[in-house]
Design goal:
binds manganese (II) ion; single chain; 424 residues; 8-stranded parallel sheet; binds alpha-D-psicofuranose; alpha/beta; L-rhamnose_isomerase; two-stranded antiparallel ribbon; TIM Barrel; Sugar isomerase
């Protein structure tokens, strides 16, 4: 199904008078509202192909209906999101779940929906049917060189798919690690992993980036071979200029100061991209901004400050991706909420009075520094985000329109009530 311009126009016509009043009132109070709205119009967040179906836990999976059955339908789902918010103009694929049968047809379809191909993701954390060697004891860290070779070859194959689609980056997340003390020689595991990554890096086209994603624990519970940002940075630094660290918000030990991690990675020119989600306990993969919106704002505060400090392009120089899983909500509604939360945090970070904050810091005025940050965080910027949508041709209230025109009901009619998307 497609959402047409008339449906959006009719919806916006109804909501526009209230939006106009809210926006004008806020714009009169703020300096630079127009600049912020333009930044918001330009900002795009990639949607992961694996987040369009209902996720599960290790205890079970309660599927919704109308889930995408193949890559074409995943692209169509993201097309719906992008038509509704005009901020989801990219898809991130996971191989082998999303191997295209016909590159040119897939490129054309994505193009029709206004979607680009963001980072390609490899998968050496599961064994695939017919796979020669098992990843049970790791992939790139493995004691057997033949398993490492298989993992390297898989990543090179992922790059090849990406080249055909016009992607420009590869994200490598390894489940490698150990679950018991003594299981691994840490140094050897690191060296094996580094050598394997070096082979993949050598196969990377010059205009591509490699993102090394870290994760503190799970599926391994004693050690992870790319376990934190320090280890990721070590690999990325040894690999070369086109290798970067990728921060997934759910991949830290409790209470880690992610905003500080982000600030230092940016300072070193080694922050490559983001996987947005939220969590209370571990890698919960909940809707972005649903649990810790202040932390999300503080992260964006460092991102904006750090990117501006290096004269970076907010939209192009980092990979912005969601990585979430939905057990209870409609995946598409959940993704709309995540994108909205990201844009709100970004808008609030753009609002921070930087000279006032710098002055407070220079004077050790801790109270004033907090006031400056919280003034921005407590500003209700939703009318700026909505204004950006209006100007970009999106719906003023994407979730409301999604429900008004019964998108899910129509997808169920089209695809069936018992479809299950590929992925986790
Ligand atoms: C692992 O937890 C992760 O965050 C990686 O990014 C994977 O690619 C993704 O989730 C899906 O398993
Ligand atoms: Mn991730």
């Amino acid at each position: 199904m497609n959402i047409n311009k008339d449906q959006i126009a009719e919806h916006n016509k109804r909501l526009e008078p209230v939006q106009k009043r809210r926006f004008e009132q806020l714009a009169a109070e703020l300096s630079g509202a127009e600049r912020i709205v333009q930044h918001l119009v330009d900002f795009q967040v990639a949607i992961p192909s694996w987040a369009l179906g209902t996720g599960g836990t290790r205890f079970g999976r309660f599927s919704g209906g109308g889930e995408p059955r193949n890559l074409q339908e995943k692209i169509a789902d993201i097309g719906i999101l992008h038509a509704l918010n005009r901020s989801s103009g990219a898809i991130s694929l996971h191989i082998p779940w999303d191997i295209p049968e016909d590159y040119s047809a897939i490129r054309t379809l994505a193009n029709q929906h206004g979607l680009a191909f963001d980072a390609m993701n490899s998968n050496t954390f599961q064994d695939q049917p017919g796979q020669a060697l098992s990843y049970k004891f790791g992939s790139m860290q493995h004691v057997d060189p033949a398993v490492r070779r298989q993992a390297v070859d898989h990543n090179i194959e992922v790059i090849k798919h990406g080249i055909e689609l016009g992607s420009k980056s590869l994200t490598v997340w390894l489940a490698d690690g150990s679950s018991f003390p003594g299981q691994l020689n840490f140094r050897r595991a690191f060296q094996n992993t580094l050598e394997s990554l070096q082979e993949v890096y050598a196969a990377l086209p010059d205009d591509w980036k490699m993102f090394v994603e870290y994760k503190a624990f799970e599926p391994n519970f004693y050690s992870t071979t790319v376990g934190d940002w320090g280890q990721s940075l070590l690999y990325a630094s040894k690999l070369g200029d086109n290798a970067y660290t990728l921060v997934d918000l759910g991949h830290h030990l409790p209470n880690a100061n992610i905003e500080q991690i982000v600030a230092l990675l940016l300072m070193e020119g080694k922050l490559g991209g983001f996987h947005f989600n939220d969590s209370k306990y571990g890698d919960d993969d909940l809707t972005t901004g649903s649990i810790k919106p202040y932390q999300l704002f503080l992260i964006f505060n460092e991102l904006v400050e750090g990117m501006d400090n290096r004269s970076m392009d907010h939209t192009k120089d980092l990979g912005w991706m969601i990585d979430a899983s939905h057990n209870l909500k409609d995946p598409l509604e959940d993704l709309l909420q995540s994108v909205e939360a990201i844009l709100i945090a970004y808008a609030q970070a753009l609002l921070v009075d930087r000279p006032a904050l710098a002055e407070a810091q220079a004077e050790n005025d801790v109270v004033r520094a907090q006031e400056v940050l919280q003034h921005a965080f407590r500003t209700d910027v939703r009318s700026l985000v909505a204004e950006a949508r209006l100007r970009a041709g999106a719906a003023l209230d994407p979730i409301q329109l999604f429900r008004e025109i019964d998108v899910r009901g129509r997808l169920i009619k089209e695809r069936g009530a018992r479809t299950v998307a590929t992925g986790l």
